[in-house]
Amino acid sequence: LALIAACCRVAVMRARNVSFKAGDSLVYMQVVFMSGSVYVWAALDGKMDTLAVAMPSRFDSIPLGSVLLGDSVDAVSKSIAQRLAKKTGLQVFVSCNVPTESQMILPLIEKRIFEEVQRRPEEPEAEPEAQS
Fold first, then answer.
1. What DSSP string describes 120-131?
2. What DSSP state is assigned to residue 72?
3. Strands (DSSP E) along 1-132, which ranges?
4. Which of 36, 31, 53 is nearest to 115 (CA)?
5. Residue 129 Cα to chain centre, angstroms
6. Which residues of 30-43 are buried (b: 16+ CB within 10 A; e: fewer)?
7. CA atoms lying within 13 Å on the CB side of residue 5
8. For 77-127, how does the pLDDT look when each residue is reduced to its tens digit (9 = 90+)?
9. Beta-strand pair 25-34/14-22
């Protein structure tokens, strides 16, 4: 049993829920920190319409990015994910759901996303080994 515990790392997630005013709108955000990645959800209405992922590439200065869920034409989540991946060096999942009529507040939301990710907690550590 001790050998199994020594060989396996237990993934730990840390989440932070935030709400803030951007213009006249109330924005809800959740940031989940995992070992080697981060997930960010931001929305005005509680929905998750689009989910994108990006990760650094050793072959290109622009991180690889893809829309996993939702409209692939909507590049907001993907572009935020790529910028975060480049800045942090982590795999980043982003779901930023802002209606078309509220696009003017998008820079404020993006700024807050970057601030929250910069405030990330220490890297999650493995749980202590079991003594036998």
1. PPSPP-PPPPPP
2. T
3. 14-22, 25-34, 37-43, 51-55, 64-69, 91-97
4. 31
5. 29
6. bbebbeebbbbbbb
7. 8
8. 999 999 999 999 999 999 998 887 888 889 999 999 999 998 866 544 444
9. antiparallel
